[in-house]
Design a protein that fits this description.
Alpha-Beta Plaits, 5 strands, 11 helices, alpha+beta, 2 domains, five-stranded mixed β-sheet
Length: 374
């Protein structure tokens, strides 16, 4: 689950990074555009200012957009973001010195604070964010003291910027903790809402959603799908004789068995209610689906759970199997799901009517059902 959180966190960070980079680039482009009707001092100062913006700061900022949008480069996105922000800080401090030496005061340390905040709000990991911010503070402070000397004004200005930037980093750290807690809470609640607490399998809500999702995948990839509904034989008699706690233990063991045999990534099992279960296989060969279903039912009997008196020696289960062969992408998922459940339920009824401990093969949708009990 931690890997899922990290992936979602990285996706959020990339989204924020894209927004911040585009916003900063638009701001810098706006500075260039609006600098023409304004007086930026001597012509050489205006020329150098526009040159630094157009040749250094704006391309460095837009480079982040490339590293976000082009997937092969995303692994380097953090490093490029830090590097370009340091380049922009250096460019901003250069312009600040240029303006100050020409008797102008257009570039203040507030721009440095903006760039430092840009470092902290793009959702890097906390250690990287802290190191990057400290690097930005150190670079800006060193240039400030080198250019203007170590005096009380420079000390107060850089201290204020540094303190404010550190507060921003701390706030982002707290925000990250809040995101993590909320993400895990939502996943935990989703898991509770879709899990049967007795067996550990998915519940009916989970089964319905996963069945439709798997049907869509089968239609998209032109693969087969097999569904079997399972019902524990004579379970009411078992409960009446051994009691409900024993019945719960029986269902729990059956759930563990189903969970253990559904090993492939797209196969799944769920408890639909009471003593009824559903299992789905993704892309089995038509001739193998019945064998897979037989193995599941034989595994139930192999658990060796003593049956109620007069109901055989061990607890068994009956199953109704139905398949859909390479559904067409244009077919309605909901209609396929409803028809699969209807046919599987009818096959299960036939299996139980035929003497229980049976598998009844309801055939495939769109084909003539062979429907022969074993």
């Amino acid at each position: 689950m931690e890997a899922e959180y990290v992936a979602s966190r990285q996706l959020l960070g990339l989204s924020w990074r894209l927004i911040v980079a585009i916003t900063m680039a638009c701001y810098l482009i706006g500075v260039v555009i609006f600098s023409y009707p304004m007086q930026l001092g001597p012509p050489e100062v205006a020329f150098v200012t526009r040159l630094v913006l157009l040749a250094v700061m704006i391309p460095a900022t837009l480079l982040n957009v490339l590293f976000v949008l082009w997937r092969p480069l995303r692994r380097w996105s953090d490093a490029i973001w830090i590097l370009t922000m340091l380049v922009n800080i250096g460019g901003m401090m250069f312009l600040r010195i240029l303006f100050a030496r020409n008797g102008l005061d257009a570039w203040s340390l507030s721009q440095l604070l903006t760039l430092l905040f840009a470092l902290s709000i793009v959702q890097m990991s906390t250690p990287r964010m802290l190191v990057a911010t400290l690097m930005g503070i150190s670079l800006g402070t060193a240039i400030e003291f080198w250019a203007f000397g170590f005096n009380i004004r420079s000390l107060l200005d850089t201290s204020t910027v540094s303190l404010t930037a550190c507060v921003g980093v701390w706030l982002m750290f707290e925000f990250d903790k809040l995101l993590r807690v909320n993400w895990y809470r939502e996943r935990y609640l989703d898991q509770l809402a879709s899990t049967d607490t007795l067996t550990g399998l998915g519940n009916r809500r989970y089964f319905d959603a996963m069945l439709r999702q798997t049907i869509r995948a089968a239609a998209r990839e032109r693969r087969n799908l097999a569904l079997m509904l399972i019902d524990v034989d004579h379970f009411k008699s078992y409960n009446d004789h051994y009691g409900h706690p024993a019945g719960d233990q029986c269902l729990e063991r059956l759930g563990r068995h189903l969970g253990s045999v559904m090993r492939r990534p797209h196969d799944f099992a769920a408890r639909l209610g009471g003593e009824e279960f559903g299992v789905v296989w993704f892309d089995p060969r038509p001739e193998d689906a019945a064998d897979l279903a037989e193995q599941v039912l034989r595994g139930v009997a192999a658990l060796g759970i003593a049956a109620a008196p007069g109901r055989g020696t061990v607890v068994t289960a009956s199953g109704g199997l139905v398949q859909v062969l390479a559904p067409h992408p244009e077919e309605a998922t909901e209609g396929i799901a409803i028809e699969l459940m209807r046919r599987a339920d009818a096959a299960l009824y036939e299996a139980k009517r035929s003497g229980r401990n049976q598998l009844f093969n309801g055939g495939a949708l769109g084909a003539v059902a062979e429907a022969q009990p074993r």
